[in-house]
Amino acid sequence: MTLARHDGLDFSRAPFLVIWETTKACELACKHCRAEAVIHRHPRELSTMEAMGLLNTVRRFGRIVVVLSGGDPAQRPDLVDLVTHAARLGLRVALTPATTARVTPALLRRLKNAGLARIAVSLDGPTPEIHDAFRGVDGSYRQALRILKDAQAEGLSTQVNTVISNHNLADFDRLSVLMSELGIVFWEVFFLVPTGRARSQDTPSADEFETIFHRMFEFSETASFDIKATAAPHYARVVLQRQVDQRRRGQRAEPPRARGVTEGDGYAFISHTGEIFPSGFLPISAGNVRTDDLVEVYRHAPLFQRLRDRSLLKGKCGVCEYREICGGCRARAYALTGDCFSADESCAFTPASYAAT
Questions:
Q1: How many other C-beta atoms lie within 10 A of the C-beta of residue 67?
Q2: Exposed/middle/buried for residue 170 (C-beta within 10 Å: 0-12, 13-18, 19+)
Q3: pLDDT tens-digit map of 95-123
Q4: pLDDT at 256 over 90
Q5: Which own/partner pairs from 237-244 qualify as long-range (CB within 8 Å, at least 24 positions apart)?
Q6: pLDDT tens across 291-309, in order?
Q7: Which one, 21, 113, 124, 134, has least CB within 10 Å?
Q8: What interhelical angle do 235-248 and 206-220 show, nearest 10?
């Protein structure tokens, strides 16, 4: 059955989002870094011509979103050329640079003129002390605020990415206040997956996740910008539950029931050396863009096809009444159990049929 799709996309044919890890090089030393970033660029990174070929292939999916990520994409001297090429193809291009002095007003102006649609910076604490300790470099917080201000002065759409882990769990409300002051259009809240440098002991409990989900929903009711949870598809279940409750009280019409973007299901990730993953947090390769066709891999590779088949889910995820709109975080299941189809134990919800067993 084909469920509601983002922008009318059928996720079995095309992802909503492709993220390309342009480089692993980065000047920061983030404690949670998925990429396990290093100081110098890797000699086997995709070349400019290979990167443009990748973007040409991505365009075959349609006018989808492509995010240039890292490491720090500002470390690539061809960054503006790549944005220009992607924008001319008709792709919607976003950028997630590291919060360093490399992101100058002049670079932002060139990126805007090249067709960049949005820039996203990371803010993981409401104060410099909390954020800089997490990112491993003093001044990162100040640079993040400066980049947002400079980008907005150039007319760029701005977004903040925040990783929720045990280090800032108690700071969510103060983070929410900060977000309201920044003039952003989107707040993407990542929930820690213990991969790369991130550790399982840094991951909040299922009940702590649930508490943050409810705070996110309540904040979203009045926020002037959109809010999204990443690596936490069970937030969709909380949203639906809260909306159904509001409808019962006459406060809302029938809520939408759309399937979210998850690993391999509306989402694909390309590493700095061209490996094709369902997600940057799920490091199981299904091919390499140097030897394989990305479109064919996304549509037909057994790993991607299985990740889109919710009937393969195990444990409570397999019998959950919210399976089709959630499906659990396959990356976290893999990180904690070695099986990407096992139950996502970061979810506090117990399905009725599972509780009865």
A1: 19
A2: exposed
A3: 999 999 999 999 999 999 999 999 999 99
A4: no
A5: 237/322, 237/325, 237/326, 237/347, 237/349, 238/210, 238/213, 238/214, 240/322, 240/325, 242/214, 242/217
A6: 999 999 999 999 999 999 9
A7: 113
A8: 50
141: number of Cβ within 10 Å: 24
pTM here is 0.93
DSSP secondary structure, 131-170, as one string: HHHHHTSTTHHHHHHHHHHHHHHTT-EEEEEEEESTTTGG
Q: What are phi and psi of 105, to 5 degrees?
A: -55, -35
Q: Which parts of the chain fold into alpha helices (H)?
A: 48-59, 79-89, 105-114, 128-135, 140-153, 172-180, 206-220, 235-248, 294-300, 302-307, 315-319, 330-337, 352-355
Going by the DSSP 8-state scheme, the letter that residue 25 receives in this structure is: B
Pairing of strands 276-277, 267-270: antiparallel
pLDDT in tens, 62-80: 999 999 998 899 999 999 9
Distance between CA 88 and CA 213 in Å, rounded?
Answer: 38
Amino acid 123 reads L
Is residue 18 classed exposed, middle or buried when 0-12, 13-18 and 19+ CB atoms within 10 A define those classes? buried
Rounded distance, CA 266 to CA 350, Å?
26
| pLDDT class of 354 with cuts at 50, 70, 90 | confident
